[in-house]
Design a protein that fits this description.
Blueprint lengths: L1 H31 L7 E8 L4 E9 L2 E9 L6 E10 L2 E10 L2 E12 L2 E5 L3 E4 L2 E4 L12 E5 L3
Antiparallel strand pairs: 1-2, 1-10, 2-3, 3-4, 4-5, 5-6, 6-7, 7-10, 8-9
């Protein structure tokens, strides 16, 4: 009888000791899985009494998508989407927009400056129907229209 109780207790101890190892393996497996890329959304705006530029960025991994709206005095309103990437502090993206009923695509560049973005300008040329910067390294970020971070609506 004593040997039966001893074997039972030994089996019980062995079973108890194996559970933490399983949990350790489970924890290690979870740690090895790549982190999911939850989208992060940030909104930026430049606004005066007559002009508004609004930029909404959705970060998913290395990709950035979003919306860009230009409402400038005495110019046509442009509303469209952007798709690009961050290279250091520079956002380089294709902007597909509608203006006066016509859809167009052009490359845009914004430089991150603290909690704001400043749009860059440079010489461009049409490549396969898209206006692209001729030399990304020569883009000038001196615009007075600083898009400050705002709460997203």
């Amino acid at each position: 009888m004593k040997s039966t109780h001893f074997l039972f207790l030994l089996g019980l101890l062995a079973a108890c000791n194996s559970q933490p190892k399983d949990k350790e393996k489970e924890t290690e497996a979870k740690a090895e899985q790549p982190a999911s890329h939850e989208p992060t959304v940030n909104c930026y705006q430049y606004a005066t009494a007559t002009d508004t530029v609004r930029l909404t960025l959705v970060h998913v991994g290395d990709n950035i998508n979003g919306m860009l709206i230009y409402q400038l005095k005495e110019k046509d309103r442009n509303v469209g989407s952007i798709n690009g990437t961050m290279n250091g502090d520079i956002l380089l993206a294709d902007y597909t927009f509608k203006s006066e009923g016509t859809q167009s695509t052009r490359q845009v560049a914004f430089k991150k400056a603290g909690n704001a973005f400043i749009e860059g300008y440079g010489e461009s040329a049409e490549v396969n129907g898209v206006e692209k910067f001729k030399n990304v390294d020569s883009i000038v970020f001196s615009s007075s229209m600083k898009l400050e971070e705002i709460p997203c609506k």
